[in-house]
Structure formats: structure tokens, C-alpha cells
Amino acid sequence: MVRSDARENRARILAAAREALTADGSTSMNQIAQRAGVGAGTLYRNFPTREALVLAVYQDEVTRIVGTVPGLLAKMPPLEALRHWTTDLVEAMRRKHGLGDALSPGAHQAISEQSYGPVVAAITELLDAGKKDGSIRADADPGDFLQLTGALWRAASTPQDRAPHMLALILDGLGTHR
């Protein structure tokens, strides 16, 4: 059982690290501890290395994004839920790219391996809901969708963000066009 203050400290550290490392990948551990309002000992007790902290930030973000699927499907039709979810994923990938400076190649590989299964499962849930209601093609594949949308976070975001237009094209191709 983890004490509530320990859980709150961990959550504050993760939030501070996400914000700080996204803005500047070279932010020090001490600066993150200060932003979180905890001592260095508390930070290192939770995250013994910088890489452990960055990996935890990534994992926290993946868990958050994957966890939004049921709520989206409860509020909107599957194709629209897929649009909202993918837009959120693209924003997270853009932030992840900003965190990338803080990771070694091995850590990049580890986070990709840890993230792939839950992300594909979320896509599968969204696609299956659309297949069930007839709005998404029966042959839509979660792995293919992930590959296609992988380019969206790299799309030019200035002067105009190209990702929404590209996503619209992908989603149009998924539709059954009844």
C-alpha cells in the first residue's frame, strides 16, 4: 500500500517532468524536483535515474490516452471517437518527440515496445465499435491505422497544422461510405 502523500508526490513529479522536459529536454532533475515542490531525495526515491523518470512520463501518457477510449465511445459515434482519440495521440507523440532528447536509443526502443500493445488494443476497440455499427470498413486493421497515423505527428504544424487534414483523409478511407 502506497501512502496518499507518496502517490501525490509521484503524480506531481510526473506532471512537473512532463511539462519541463517537453519544453526543454535538458532540464535537470533538481529543477524538476523544485517544480514539483519535492526534495531531491523524494524525486530519486521514486525515479532513481533521469531515464526512469522519462520512461514513467511516457508510460503515464500512454495509460492516459488509452484510458480515454471508453469515454469517447460512450459520448460519440465510433468514427468521431477515433478522430478525437487520434488527435490526442498525435499531440502526445509531438510532446514525446520533445522528450526524446532525454532518452538513450535503448530507452526509445523500450518505450516503443511497452506502448505498442496498449495503443493497438485501443485502436482495435475503436475500430471494432465502428465495424459493429457499420461506419468503419470490415477490413480496417489496427496495425495499418497506427502505421498511417504515425506520419501525422511529423506533419508540418506551422504555418498551418497539416495533421487534421491528413487524418480526415485517413478516416475517409476507413469509412464504409454508406
TrEMBL record:
Keywords for this protein: DNA-binding, Transcription, Transcription regulation
Range of residues in the leader sequence: none
InterPro entries documented for this protein: Homeodomain-like_sf, HTH-type_TetR-like_transc_reg, HTH_TetR, Tet_transcr_reg_TetR-rel_C_sf, TetR_SbtR-like_C
Top-level lineage group: Bacteria
Keyword rRNA-binding carried by entry: no
UniProt keyword rRNA-binding, yes or no: no
Domain HTH tetR-type: 7-65
DNA-binding region(s) from the entry: 28-47
Name under which the protein is recorded: TetR/AcrR family transcriptional regulator
Taxonomic lineage from the root: Bacteria, Bacillati, Actinomycetota, Actinomycetes, Kitasatosporales
